[in-house]
Design a protein that fits this description.
Strand content: 15-25%
Shape: globular
CATH class of the largest domain: Alpha Beta
Number of strands: 15
Distance between the termini: 59 Å
Largest sheet: 7 strands, mixed
Structural class: alpha/beta
Length: 452
């Protein structure tokens, strides 16, 4: 006879994400959506019979957080964070421990997955989850001995121990639906520049990216591509709509990596008349689309596609191991417009090997494409990426103060570029926006500038 497991209480914490955009060009217009990762973790806990809540610092302040801890009395607290938020993670973990030292604080996400030991050293967290957390969090909260849990680092008797990595989840259909109901859905608003209707739900249809771009951190989902079935994806679309979401943003590393599967998803969305708008906001590859697929995406409710273009110089594209051609870029944008889709382009400036000539070529390419939205980012060598490691070997990295590794900022305090001064990089960064958005063709097409 098996003993019934005692239900535990877990408070999942979403850190104030606007901190990532402080002192950047996106301050004040950063998107606000219920984070998908915590909803997935919450769903796994609920499936096991535990009680889970989510506290979002983007909606409430520290005083409310303290009240929540005292009222809920959690046994565990889970904090997910990216690199620039490690100081916030430390601050929150200290608040938790000050209220009740017995609360076990678990951290996860991109930074703890990349640097589990230092994440534990730099915060009051007890356990760091490495990689996917749905199965790991269940074993932690169920009380399995820490030394027997794969995919964690943990503190014990003043020392830090790191266990072997957990195997990646192969059948994503077996995972419970994300517990988006744990959020106060109506409180989230996405700027009109990147959403037609609020509230917006983030949904994933696959995990992992098989490509090798040197600027990308794959510490959580790796290069092993795994996908949900079209039937499961459409069920999640329907569920989100039933919950009151008005739009869906696909958060995959590559929604169209398997183009045949993407087509089947569209076929089902059309057949079952799901009728909700969606976009590929985290980007799809220009070499993983064709005219047939793009037309089906439009028919299935997709209204905007985002492409990772990065550079207007083929040699720079090769330097970053993007694996695409400028011809593919032009075709993808052209086909998307022909299908009736709005098109956004992601670009980077200050990439390895960059010169004034190559940066100007990026500007010229962006001007020549029929884009509805163009975003450029000054290159940030994120920790645990090939780019970061190579720059570190060349002694170009100036600091390991992770709070400074912010997108949409000028990272002059983070690293030195091998060829260019920061004044030059910034000049072309601002020139990009002036040239693209003040381009007469763009102004004629848009009555108002959609700017991020």
């Amino acid at each position: 006879m098996t003993r019934k497991m005692k239900s535990k209480k877990v408070l999942l914490v979403n850190l104030p994400f606007e901190k990532v955009y402080e002192k950047t060009s996106l301050r004040g217009v950063a998107p606000s959506t219920p984070p998908l990762g915590l909803a997935c973790i919450g769903a796994s806990l609920l499936q096991e019979g535990h009680k889970a809540r989510i506290f979002d610092f983007n909606l409430y302040d520290e005083k409310k957080f303290i009240e929540e801890i005292k009222e809920f009395e959690p046994n565990y607290a889970g904090i997910s964070f990216v690199t620039p938020l490690i100081k916030e993670a430390d601050k929150v973990s200290k608040i938790i421990k000050k209220i009740n030292k017995k609360i076990v604080v678990v951290c996860g996400g991109p930074h703890p997955s990349s640097f589990p030991e230092s994440s534990l050293k730099e915060t009051k967290c007890n356990i760091a989850v490495i990689g996917e957390g749905e199965h790991t969090i269940k074993e932690i909260v169920n009380g399995k001995k820490l030394e027997k849990i794969k995919g964690i680092a943990y503190k014990k008797n003043g020392k830090i121990y790191t266990n072997e990595r957990r195997e990646f989840i192969q059948n994503l259909d077996e995972l419970p639906f994300p517990a988006l109901h744990l959020y106060e859905i109506g409180k989230y608003k996405v700027p009109k520049a990147i959403a037609r209707n609020n509230p917006v739900a983030w949904l994933e249809t696959s995990r992992g990216c098989p490509y090798g771009c040197i600027y990308c951190n794959k510490s959580i989902f790796s290069r092993i591509y795994r996908a949900k079935s079209p039937e499961r994806v459409v069920s999640e679309f329907k569920k989100a709509k039933q919950m009151g979401f008005k739009e869906i943003h696909i958060t995959d590393d590559g929604f169209t990596t398997d183009m045949e599967r993407a087509e089947k998803i569209c076929d089902l969305l059309i057949k079952e008349k799901v009728n909700i708008g969606w976009s590929t906001i985290t980007g799809i590859r220009v070499d993983r689309v064709n005219q047939k697929l793009l037309k089906k995406m439009k028919q299935a409710g997709c209204y905007m596609v985002y492409y990772g273009i990065e550079s207007g110089n083929q040699k720079i594209i090769e330097n970053i191991k993007k694996g695409i051609t400028l011809e593919q870029v032009k075709n993808a944008v052209k086909w998307s417009k022909e299908a009736g889709l709005e098109v956004a382009g992601f670009f980077m400036i200050g990439l390895p090997g960059e010169t004034e000539k190559t940066m100007q070529e990026t500007i010229e390419l962006a001007k020549s494409l029929e884009l509805d939205l163009a975003k450029i980012n000054i290159t940030i060598p994120l920790p645990a990426t090939e780019m970061f490691n190579k720059m570190n070997e060349k002694k170009l990295i100036k600091t390991l103060d992770w709070e400074k590794f912010k997108f949409y900022s000028t990272p002059k305090s983070v690293y030195e570029h091998e060829n260019l001064s920061w004044d030059t990089i910034e000049k072309y960064y601002h020139k990009f926006y002036r040239s693209v958005y003040l381009n007469p063709r763009f102004l004629l097409k848009k009555l108002s500038i959609r700017w991020i």
